[in-house]
Amino acid sequence: MQRGPYNTISTTDIRFFDSLLGPNRLITDPDECESYNIDFPSTVRGASRCVLKPKSTEEVSAILKYCNTRRLAVVPQSGNTGLVGGSNPVFDEIVISMKSMNKILDTNELAGVLTCEAGCVLENLENHLTTVGLMMPLDLGAKGSCLIGGCVSTNAGGLRLLRYGNLHGNILGVEAVKANGDVVDALNTLKKNNTGYHLKHLFIGSEGTLGIVTKVVIQCPPLPKAVHLAFLGLASFDKVLKTYHLAKRELGEILSSCEMMDRLSIDVSINNLDMKNPLTSYENGHEFYMLIETSGSHLAHDEEKLSSFVEKAMNNDIIEDGTLTNETAKINNIWGLRERISEGVLRDGYVFKYDISLPFTSFYKVVEVLRDRLRDPRIIRISGYGHLGDGNIHVQVSIPEYYVDVAAQLEPFIFEYVSQCQGSISAEHGIGFKKTKYLHMSKTSSEIAMMYDLKKLMDPNGILNPYKVLMPVTTELQS
Amino acid sequence: MEDYKFLFKVVLVGNAGVGKTCLVRRFTQGLFPPGQGATIGVDFMIKTVEVENEKVKLQIWDTAGQERFRSITQSYYRSAHALILVYDISCQPTFDCLPDWLREIEEYASNKVLRILVGNKIDREDREIPTHVGEDFAQRHGMYFLETSAKEAENVERLFMEIAAELMEVSENILFKSILLLW
Ligand SMILES: Cc1cc2nc3c(=O)[nH]c(=O)nc-3n(C[C@H](O)[C@H](O)[C@H](O)COP(=O)(O)OP(=O)(O)OC[C@H]3O[C@@H](n4cnc5c(N)ncnc54)[C@H](O)[C@@H]3O)c2cc1C
Ligand SMILES: Nc1nc2c(ncn2[C@@H]2O[C@H](COP(=O)(O)OP(=O)(O)O)[C@@H](O)[C@H]2O)c(=O)[nH]1
Ligand SMILES: [Mg+2]
């Protein structure tokens, strides 16, 4: 990878940023820059010497306007929990950290509409909404660190997508700053508004390559009165599918999550993180686990549906055992087993992570195919878990440290395999830096051509998050 | 699918710590777990046994005692064929709570449900509830009675096997009666 045609940051540039933001919101100390240069799983590392922390849309606008004229490349960063290296500089791009834009602007309880700045932490928004009987339409393991603007920019899926749909539906409006500093105010708060182009979509899932999201309007469903969780042990993936099928039929409108984990995935939480498996009736555990959550408005009804579902599943021999609860502390404990897998697996060493969509027929086969292909004693685990209800599996391959030859056995093989099965090589994490060269495996050439057109239109100098999503186009520095 | 002729749902209730989970694990796995966390929610599992050459599948629901004033209650009682109400023979308060449990059972369970009172931990030296006191209580409330030790595997197998046999007989009787009625 070659550095793009950008200027390097000068003392004049630093002086400009200093006068704009003041010394507290400008970081140039290399040690302090370090955490912004490295991604959450420590798989990529940039060399930025400049981190900016704007507090307002006006400041973001001023920064971009300046960088665009000066041809300085930037990388927007929110919680830095992204898993495809999208939020870190590749070379010396300026990091624009959104952390200081964390104000909640408006909460419309009746309409269920929240307006806030892009730098609010997902969990803080969740806690805020709880006080008015609402909830966020998305939830994910990184909620304590990821920011809503980061989620919007990656079109994050997560644990509630099955029930509430994705952010293209739930984000009603955005405010974003274009590469040249122009502010696009698309802060629509209406549920229905078919007037002209729906520009918000350009900023949802475009990973900071078309603009910087500064504010968002979110459609928030009412907080369910009753939440139940069933954690199940199963003997085969075939039974996992049968259970999912049954859950859809029996739990229908109250089903809010349907997650699966294989044995090696849950081993991460149990062995690497010392958590307890709540299922004890099989000494050696189970081959598969499922987590089924319901959210509804009537405790007794929901409970009855869920226990009758469990009874049927047991009577049909599709589950081996399980546990059922509606106590918040216990629900959180069980969710922890699932949510902490991606953190816990890092203790193995280096982790190759693939976030793919596959049709149900090949959903788990990909893990088996990899196990077959990589019979390498250095490999600690090849496992799969994920959002079964959304056809989305996370495959992780862990080894003590990075080995080039193992990487070569995995890639591009896995992407080709997924592409062959009509799957998506990135279901919810995005393309970022790591998957750029595989974009064509899930997008047609006509789509990619139009993506370039849009990129040129929105960011002619290519200063916004270069090397991400699309391969760089401009190679020469124009003056 | 494995074939079986009978399928019954058995639910264990009683105060936390009386040994419900140990009884279930002794029966389903043949072991006495060395220290384990309290039951998280309602645990459910399957155990197939054989009674008079017939396969009987028992669906066992082990509840978390500390939750008894909480909400998960109705649905798992409702479709139960047998309810095992457990107390600890070395702990008077667990016996004193039995009327509360019975009230809950009356309210939620079907009135045809088979009810068994179990005094557990008879291996312990510090007994507080004499056998006849438990027996009396059971008799007064129309329940079967058994004393067990999950630790020493006393009467545990017997407890579940007798339940299976009894339920089998009841359901065959019903079958028989309904055939008679058809005549
Ligand atoms: C434990 C864990 C669990 C996860 N679970 C899920 C999951 O279930 N589903 C899921 O989809 N993802 C999941 N992720 C991935 C990640 O959390 C999401 O992609 C999240 O949305 C990223 O948010 P962030 O604030 O950390 O953004 P960052 O990682 O900082 O940024 C992500 C991308 O968006 C760009 N960006 C950030 N902010 C802006 C902005 N304001 N304007 C324009 N561009 C911006 C960045 O340049 C980068 O390309 C998980 C990650 C972890 C660590
Ligand atoms: N001595 C003795 N202790 C027992 C027996 N059964 C259970 N225990 C102990 O009682 C405690 C609670 O047991 P547990 O099965 O978790 O109770 P539950 O809350 O009713 O499920 C544990 O410390 C067990 O070791 C028994 O038969 N004898
Ligand atoms: Mg217990």
UniProtKB/TrEMBL annotation, chain A:
The keyword Membrane does not apply. It comes from Camponotus floridanus (Florida carpenter ant). Catalyzes the oxidation of D-2-hydroxyglutarate (D-2-HG) to alpha-ketoglutarate. Also catalyzes the oxidation of other D-2-hydroxyacids, such as D-malate (D-MAL) and D-lactate (D-LAC). Exhibits high activities towards D-2-HG and D-MAL but a very weak activity towards D-LAC. Its cofactor is FAD. Its EC number is 1.1.99.39. Belongs to the FAD-binding oxidoreductase/transferase type 4 family. SUPFAM superfamilies: FAD-binding/transporter-associated domain-like, FAD-linked oxidases, C-terminal domain. This is D-2-hydroxyglutarate dehydrogenase, mitochondrial. It is an enzyme of class 1 (oxidoreductase).
From TrEMBL, chain B:
Its cofactor is Mg(2+). It comes from Camponotus floridanus. It comes from the Eukaryota. One of its GO terms (molecular function) is metal ion binding. It is a lipid-anchor. GO terms for cellular component: autophagosome membrane; cytoplasmic vesicle; Golgi apparatus; lysosome. This is Ras-related protein Rab-30. It holds the Pfam family Ras. It is found in: Cytoplasmic vesicle, Autophagosome membrane; Golgi apparatus, cis-Golgi network; Golgi apparatus, trans-Golgi network membrane; Lysosome. It is an enzyme of class 3 (hydrolase). Transmembrane segments: none annotated. Its EC number is 3.6.5.2. SUPFAM superfamilies: P-loop containing nucleoside triphosphate hydrolases (SSF52540). InterPro entries: P-loop_NTPase (IPR027417), Rab (IPR050227), Small_GTP-bd (IPR005225), Small_GTPase (IPR001806). Belongs to the small GTPase superfamily. Rab family. PANTHER family: RAS-RELATED PROTEIN RAB. The small GTPases Rab are key regulators of intracellular membrane trafficking, from the formation of transport vesicles to their fusion with membranes. Rabs cycle between an inactive GDP-bound form and an active GTP-bound form that is able to recruit to membranes different sets of downstream effectors directly responsible for vesicle formation, movement, tethering and fusion. RAB30 is required for maintaining the structural integrity of the Golgi apparatus, possibly by mediating interactions with cytoplasmic scaffolding proteins. It catalyses: GTP + H2O = GDP + phosphate + H(+). Keywords: Cytoplasm, Cytoplasmic vesicle, Golgi apparatus, GTP-binding, Hydrolase, Lipoprotein, Lysosome, Magnesium, Membrane, Metal-binding, Methylation, Nucleotide-binding, Prenylation. Gene3D superfamilies: P-loop containing nucleotide triphosphate hydrolases.
